[in-house]
Amino acid sequence: MISALLAAAAVLALLTLVPGPDMAVVTQASLTGGRSSGFRVAVGIISGLLVWGLLTVLGLSALLAASAEAYTAVKLAGAAYLIYLGARALWGSRTSRMQQSLPRSQKAGTWKTGFTTNLLNPKIAVFYTSLLPQLVPAGWPTGPSLALLVLIHAAISIAWLSAYVVLLSRARSTFEKPKVRQALERITGTVLLGFGAKIALEAR
Predict the structure, then answer these.
(1) Spatial separation of the C-alpha atoms in residues 145 and 141, rounded to whole Å
(2) Which residues neighbour 27 within 8 Å (Cβ) at sequence distance 6 or greater?
(3) Could you report the per-residue pLDDT of 152-173, keeping only the tens digit for each?
(4) Which of 62, 75, 65 is nearest to 195 (CA)?
C-alpha cells in the first residue's frame, strides 16, 4: 500500500510541474515584487487547492464538474481574471520609468491573486473528481484517502512553487534592469492573456 501511495505522489508531482496559470502568476509576482510577493501568491494558490480538496472530499466539486452551466460560469470568470492580470501587466510595462514609479503595493503579488486564480480554475475540480479517486490505494477508505492525497498534492505544490520563487529571486538582479524588466513584464502579461483566452475558448 505504501508503494501505491508513493506512485500516487509521483503522478501528482508530475502534474504539478506542468506549466499553467498558477506558475504564470507566481512568475509575474516574483519578477515585479520579489521573493515575498512570489511566496504570497504561492500560498494563495495552495489555499485554493485546499478549498477544492475540501469540496472534493465532501462531494461538492463533483457537482460542478457534472454541471455544464456551473463549469462554464467558473471557467469564464477564471479566464476573465487571467486576462485582467495580463492586461494589467502589459499596461504597467509601457515604459520602465512608469513601472518604477508605481507604488510597490501595486507591483507586488498578493495572496488574493493566487487564491482567486486557483479557485476560478474549474479544471482543478475535474482533476480532483476524476483522477484522485483512481489514485486511492486499494482497500483504503475513500474519504480519508482523498484528503491525504489532497494534502500530498498541496505539499508538493508549495515545495515546487517555493523553490521556483527562490530561483527567480536569485536572478532578480538581472531582472531589475529596466529593459529586461519591461520585456519580462510584457512576456508574462502576454502569457497570462494567452492562458485566459485558452481557458475561455477551450471545451471541457
Answers:
(1) 6
(2) 164, 168, 188, 191
(3) 999 999 999 999 999 888 776 6
(4) 75
